[in-house]
Amino acid sequence: MTRRDDIRRKALEDLQQYEVLMRNGHFDFGNGFHGPVYLNPHQLFRYPSTIWRFAQDLLDVLPASILDETEVVTGPVTGGALLAHTIAGLLDSRRDLGRAPTLFAPFTLDSGSGHTLSRFYARLVAGRKALVVDDVRNTGQTQARCVELVRNAGGTVLATAEIYDRMEAMVDAGVPNVALAEYKAPENVPAEACPLCTAGVPVTTF
């Protein structure tokens, strides 16, 4: 087992220990579907030291070539912005003091058009090499949208990365993707056909 494999194994254990990755529950996702597995971002970001730890681990599993070229770290406000901000700062702590500081650019969420990149941050990423990060990859649509926004602004995306990959992505962002932890969750089901509901298992609350 390599060091990266060991980091990933431990990260999956820690995600469950800290109740970030919640398994064997009965979750109502609010979109008409139920399922037994949930990534609780509130637990992930509750303590800054927790996200700092997972960000360090994610940096340790990312290829050195990507880290060396990264000039700006980006992430969506729905979960990845705090992670991106943390990674940008930690990346600087590993670099020579004479190097230009790593930039940070969040994607905002517009009710009409989805994720967007403000004019200010679009100018910031233009001509620069970006790393796009998020807390979790589900279908891959969010990451693909963020990659598109960086490219439209004139930036280059080196890779996407996340703390947890559900391994069910349906959209390929067209760049390398690196996950700290991977876990293939059982498929979610329509609420009206949920076997947990049929069995009388109460919806998990927290």
Order of strands side by side in the largest beta sheet? 7-6-5-8-9-10
Run of helices and strands: HEEEEHHHEHEEHEHEEEH
Terminal residue distance: 36 Å
Tell me which CATH architecture applies here: 3-Layer(aba) Sandwich
Poorly predicted sequence stretches spanning 5 or more consecutive residues? none
Give Rg in angstroms. 18 Å
Give the helix proportion (percent range). 25-40%
Mean pLDDT: 93
What structural category do the secondary elements indicate?
alpha/beta
Molecular shape: globular
How many individual β-strands? 11
CATH class descriptor name: Alpha Beta
Largest sheet: 6 strands, mixed
Give the oligomeric state: single chain
Number of domains: 1
Task: Describe this structure as you would to a colleague.
- With 206 residues, this protein is of the alpha/beta class.
- Helices cover 38% and strands 25% of the residues.
- The protein has one domain: Rossmann fold, CATH 3.40.50.2020.
- The protein has eight helices and eleven strands.
- It has a six-stranded mixed beta sheet with strand order 7-6-5-8-9-10, with helices on both faces. The protein has a three-stranded antiparallel beta sheet with strand order 2-3-11, with no helix packed on it.
- Strand 8, helix 7 and strand 9 form a beta-alpha-beta unit.
- Helix 1 packs antiparallel against helix 3 (48-61) and helix 3 (48-61) packs across helix 5 (80-93).
- The chain is globular and about 60 Å long.
SSE blueprint:
Blueprint: H1 3-17, E1 21-22, E2 27-28, E3 33-35, E4 38-39, H2 41-46, H3 48-61, H4 64-69, E5 72-76, H5 80-93, E6 103-110, E7 114-116, H6 119-125, E8 129-137, H7 141-152, E9 156-165, E10 177-182, E11 189-190, H8 195-198
Parallel strand pairs: 5-6, 5-8, 8-9, 9-10
Antiparallel strand pairs: 1-4, 2-3, 3-11, 6-7
